[in-house]
């Protein structure tokens, strides 16, 4: 079969109605706003679990951004009551911040497990999951979980 024939047999999705498309783009923009918050609190939780605290310099280093960028985001997280900054001690999560971090980490682990079940290499699965975890619906995440459980049962 030629490439041309294969392409013509591909499934084409019809253009969706404007209201649905607007809602889709709205959801994507909302996801982008929360993605940063989730990435920060998840990293802060990991650093606290590993080191007992999270320091601004290490957050900047691990996210690959400048310290002033981290300082600005930490100010936002503090205003949203997700973190507490203690002078000479570092950054700590509030109960609300810890809840978001745990939920984000669980989503991340499901996506990584799903990608691994598809045969994606561990390194690529970790990198790709970083973007996917923030942009899939709960319904899709549940489907990933079902797929993982089925794959686990078949492997046993």
UniProtKB/TrEMBL annotation:
PROSITE patterns: HTH_DTXR (PS50944)
Quaternary structure (record): Homodimer.
Tagged with keyword Transcription: yes
Gene (UniProt): mntR
This protein's name: Transcriptional regulator MntR
Keyword DNA-binding tagged: yes
GO cellular component: cytoplasm
Function in brief: In the presence of manganese, represses expression of mntH and mntS. Up-regulates expression of mntP.
Native species: Sinorhizobium mexicanum
Main location per the UniProt record: cytoplasm
Subcellular location: Cytoplasm
InterPro entries: DtxR_MntR_Metal-Reg (IPR050536), Fe_dep_repressor (IPR001367), Fe_dep_repressor_sf (IPR036421), HTH_DTXR (IPR022687), Iron_dep_repressor (IPR022689), WH-like_DNA-bd_sf (IPR036388), WH_DNA-bd_sf (IPR036390)
Family: Belongs to the DtxR/MntR family.
Annotated signal sequence range: none
Keywords: Activator, Cytoplasm, DNA-binding, Manganese, Repressor, Transcription, Transcription regulation
Source superkingdom: Bacteria
GO molecular function list: DNA binding; DNA-binding transcription factor activity; protein dimerization activity; transition metal ion binding
């Amino acid at each position: 079969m030629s490439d041309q024939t294969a392409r013509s047999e591909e499934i084409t999705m019809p253009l969706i109605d404007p209201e649905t498309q607007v809602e889709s783009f709205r959801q994507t923009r909302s996801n982008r706003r929360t993605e940063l918050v989730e990435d920060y609190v998840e990293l802060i939780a990991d650093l606290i679990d590993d080191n007992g605290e999270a320091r601004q310099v290490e957050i900047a280093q691990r996210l690959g951004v400048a310290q002033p960028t981290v300082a600005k985001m930490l100010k936002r997280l503090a205003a949203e009551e997700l973190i507490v900054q203690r002078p000479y001690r570092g950054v700590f999560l509030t109960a609300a911040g810890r809840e978001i971090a745990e939920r984000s980490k669980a989503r991340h682990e499901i996506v990584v497990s799903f990608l691994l079940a598809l045969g994606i290499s561990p390194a690529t699965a970790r990198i790709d999951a970083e973007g996917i975890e923030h942009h899939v619906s709960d319904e899709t995440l549940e489907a990933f979980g079902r797929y993982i459980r089925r794959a686990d049962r078949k492997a046993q």
